[in-house]
Amino acid sequence: AAAAAAAATAPRVMHEYPPRPKDMGINTTPLAARTPAPTLAKIYVLPARLYGLELESIALVNLPAVRSRVKACPGFKEAHSALTAADAALERPAAAEPELHFLGTGSSMPSKYRNVSAILLRVPALGTHLSMLLDCGEGTYGQLSRQFGSQLDELIFNLRCVHISHMHADHHLGLVRILLARDALHPPSPLVVFGPPVLDLWLKSFADIHPLSYIFVNTHRTRGLQTMRDTWALGDLGFTKIDNVPVEHCRHAFGVVLHHRAGWKLVYSGDTRPCQNLVSAGRDAEVLIHEATFDNDLADDAVFKMHSTTAEAVEVGRAMGARATILTHFSQRYPKVPVFDAGFTDTTSVAFDNMRVPFSYLPLLPRLVPAIRAVFDETYKDIEEENDLDDDDVPDSKDKSKKSKGQGPKEKGEKKREAEEKSGKRGKGGQGAKDDVKRPRVEGQ
Length: 445
Fold this sequence. Notes:
Elements: H1 2-9, E1 14-15, E2 42-44, E3 52-54, H2 63-71, H3 76-88, E4 99-104, E5 118-125, E6 128-136, H4 140-148, H5 152-157, E7 159-163, H6 169-172, H7 175-183, E8 191-195, H8 197-207, E9 214-218, H9 219-222, H10 228-231, E10 239-246, E11 254-260, E12 265-268, H11 276-281, E13 287-291, H12 299-304, H13 310-320, E14 325-328, E15 348-350, E16 355-358, H14 368-375, H15 377-391, H16 400-404, H17 409-423
Parallel strand pairs: 6-7, 7-8, 8-9, 12-13, 13-14, 14-15
Antiparallel strand pairs: 1-3, 2-3, 4-5, 4-16, 5-6, 10-11, 11-12
Helix pairs in contact: 3-14
């Protein structure tokens, strides 16, 4: 009791909030007047004596120390020199250009290093940058706030369209927050939402609680059409055509191909197995953004869960003739970096959260891969150790066909548990330092 009383009266590092409003709905205060919350800060709502923002747990990053550690990584100096030379030779346009902002590059659920799916496409138009979102997983609004800071309200105001590829939660749960934030700014026209019909029912059910302003376009009814019914919603962005392409994932899953009047084409796969429909519709695209949920050793899992491996995604880009292929939607078993393999081409790169890519930088992205590999070399060693454990499950680990033949995810998991118990890495009954999911070790966890 004495310890509890002392803790209750101990001084806290706090930032006082204004008095709590009786209406705890959306915060309509202009962004400039809001209190910024640093990363890892804690916000207390109850009990009332703790109400406010606690700053004790904020992590401060020593950037000079980080840079020194990165420069000391074997192989980084050479990779960085090659990247710098390529950057110096790059031709940059004098005028504003389209750019991609990767807000979430992980799958399933947010992790320490990757949020779930969301990509912002910004296009110069009408004297400013207009934008659209390709998927909108939970936390998208927070990621936009981190990237754009005081410009957030302007960006939300100029958001014209959101395209939801399918109805899995990691692709659409952030949409309501975006709609509420945009409505609070009183834009001249509603936000246009492309998606499967179930999405409209979901939004209408929320609108029964809180009004939402949007125009819904059913991707089923617009697929394959080349009329203005497809393009009127995106006219301000300069798109002349939008192809909603059925892909091989779940019911009502669509990729999208955007055709711009400047002559470029952007393809976003959503979640899918390698899909010939998408290859045909996206032929000669400027950029393909394709999911690569699993590494090549987990081909069975990719088939079972209707996703793509890294090699399959790279092959889709090659077959499509895409000038740049960016891989995203990585399994959270790869928290820091995905697995790069020898199949990567000179047009292949990987996405990270908060990565901004102007279109003129697309040829430069593949040059980043060697530098990233050098920095995360230890992570790769951990991934290889985990993969070696699976290789020990079969008599001849060199024969990759034996590894996957006749084994689904359940059988592979059982064999892995048996191998771990024999090696002492897992106690009987499934208790131990490792679990059934292959993932590299994360420092501090």
